Amino acid sequence: MAEKLVVGQKLWRAPIDRRDGEPRWVEITHVGRRLATVEQFERIDAHTLVPEICRNGGFVRNRFYRTKEEWEVERERTAIWRTLRDNIDHYPPADISTDAIRRAAALLGITLPDDGVSNG
Predict the structure, then answer these.
(1) What's the total number of domains in the chain?
(2) Do 52 and 93 lie in a common domain?
(3) Same domain, 60 and 77
(4) Name one Pfam family in it (predicted).
(5) What are the strands, taking DSSP E only, across the chain?
(6) In terms of residue numbers, what domain contains 22?
(7) Are residues 56 and 19 in the same domain?
């Protein structure tokens, strides 16, 4: 379990949209049982660091991380995933075997039907 947040602690704030500024360190100004407040009065879950507005179905403008390095790892992971996703065509390339596709699905945690055919 992650260590408890404390007033004065710094978190790395990464805006979802560049129009909301550059990533930077922000300071926690208040910590309650469930929520913590960071600069600019944004409230986040004190355990998951998820903005409160997200929990209420609103649009998330920022993500928060305990370290800049944690954010960099997530940013790289997301960029690689988007590249992979954007380069997958509707039909498999002729030079990739069915077995290779099954191994890729297993690696990604995708459960395939026994006969490989889905009506979805």
Answers:
(1) 2
(2) no
(3) no
(4) Phage_ProQ_C_like
(5) 10-15, 24-31, 35-38, 42-45, 62-65
(6) 1-66
(7) yes
Q: Is residue 9 within 8 Å of residue 65, measured between CB atoms?
A: no
pLDDT tens figures, 76-90: 999 999 999 898 888
Query: What number of other Cβ atoms are within 10 A of residue 70's Cβ?
Result: 15
Q: From residue 42, how far is each of 30, 32, 70, 86, 113 by CA, in Å? A: 10, 13, 20, 33, 44
Q: Write the DSSP string, 75-96.
A: HHHHHHHHHHHHT--SS--TTS
Nearest C-alpha neighbor of 2 from the set 48, 67, 71, 62: 48
77 and 56 within one domain: no
pTM: 0.74
Write the pLDDT tens digit of every residue in 8-45: 999 999 998 888 889 999 999 999 999 999 987 789 99
β-partners of residue 38 are 28, 42
Domain identity same for 61 and 16: yes
Domain annotation covers residue 116: no
- CA separation for the pair 105, 98 (Å, rounded): 11
